[in-house]
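Lest this sound abstract, we let one protein speak, letters for residues, whole numbers for local backbone shapes, and leave readers to judge:
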Amino acid sequence: MHAGHIEITPEHNGNMFFWHFQNRHIANKQRTVIWLNGGPGCSSEDGALMEVGPYRVVDGSNKGPKLEYNPGSWDEFANIMFVDNPVGTGFSFVDTDSYVHDLPEMADQFVKFLEKWFALFPEYEHDDLYIAGESYAGQHIPYISKAILDRNKAGAKHPWQLKGMLIGNGWISPNEQYKAYLSFAYEKGLVVRDSDMAKRLESQQAVCMKALSENGGKDHVDLNQCEQILQDILRETSTKGSDGKTHCVNMYDVRLTDTYPSCGMNWPPDLENVTPYLRRTDVGEALHIDPGKRTGWTECNGAVGGAFRAKNSKPSIQILPDLIKEVPTVLFSGAEDLICNHIGTEELISNMEWNGGKGFEVSPGTWAPRRQWEFEGESAGFYQEARNLTYILFSNSSHMVPFDYARRTRDMLDRFMQVDIASIGGVPTDSRIDGEKGLETSVGGHPNSTVAQETEHAKVEAAKWSAYYKSGEIVLVIVIIAAAAWGYYIWRDRRKRAGYKGVLGGEPQMELGGARERSTMGLESFRHKRSNRDVEAADFDESELDELHVQPPNEMDRERYSVGSASDDDEGQGEKHGNGHANRK
């Protein structure tokens, strides 16, 4: 594990924070995944400690927050790095008058970060590279990917092997996604069609549509007139609770509620543990947090989001089609998210033209089928694929899909990266698309995973005792046969000696006793040899299993640094950005 700051803009004291975890196991090739959360201005430590990282922070009762292994962590077959992007976000920092304002500027700084990071860790520079994230990262990821491709085409000495983009509940195309707010509210029964509430909301939507159609409105990443639709839905659907507080829908998971006007900013519940954990002095020291970041960690920095107006940036939907020509792409959605909901994502795909076709139309009038996905016997959603783009809907999931279903997202990742564990062993995950299994992948069942380790240990112990029992049974049978044979021999010997006695007049008793003593010693020796032999066989079987079963580093080995920050944050988290927009975290 590696963590710390890399200086990006020394003239403005700009430093970007990263937290890197090495893969637990190499499958058929080396891979690195970079994870980004959104906002803009929301920390990727959300992803590290509440979604796809190797640990979750749980309540340790009187001892405070503690780490617990995440069985769906994305570091099983890929290195994973979480970056607080742009500067000023999370543990990253910069002079307060030097926040990033536009997407190309953000992408240029990120490429500079990667160049310096790979200079520090050159062993990872030739890995297959994947960029993943969620929400407003739907703007960041395409712009960063384009900057990487442009760098490669410009003749970089060490071109980076960009192999894929994964965007979850991404903010990509305002034109379709703003319209989807009200459509989703209707679908989920939050708003009743033709009601007075619906008429008020439709009136605001008309204002939004006009703004989008005038003065290059579609070329803006966000518009205040359209952001107001979401705010109006949250306000109109709020109710007074028995506790005297006003409650509203959680915009990240409409199955839940929150106090108004937070409406989801207090979610997910793990934040109660993550925030104090990352603000601990010992954790900050362990993560090499630069003393320059004196305000500590905050999930979403309103000042960064307020400055990032993207006035001179076009929405990523305008560069995405050309990117998909070169870079395989996954868009995935949690079905219960409002702020970047699946209806908007499906609409933007339907209207997008790429690789010689429009939407998921594979031939005139024929669309790529929605293939049903089952994970370990349960319906998980569906896959839809065409021309280098895959769309996945996760059933019963929120804005932060990995928070709900980390193991299912790991399965998605492994399928996308074409991880094949057939050559390294492990128990394949039962994941089927239209009833068909793909490459053998493993989620929390790989031979070096914690659960698998315990399972294999139990199997080894069972095999060992089974070997002991079998060896005992064999010895018992041999003893019985040997005793019977010896008894028969003695009986014949006695008869002979009886005859000898009659002839010679001697007593055979001492000779018989000696023979019995030798027979007992012989059987004991034989039993000892058989027992040793069987024990050696059991040990050999166990050692074979040990060779296949690569032990994962224990928590102390994995955490060369005990895993947060010294002081309280004075920048403020806030329910909204400085520009009045909700956080797309």
Observations:
- The mean pLDDT is 82.
- Residues 1 and 21 are 5 Å apart (CA to CA).
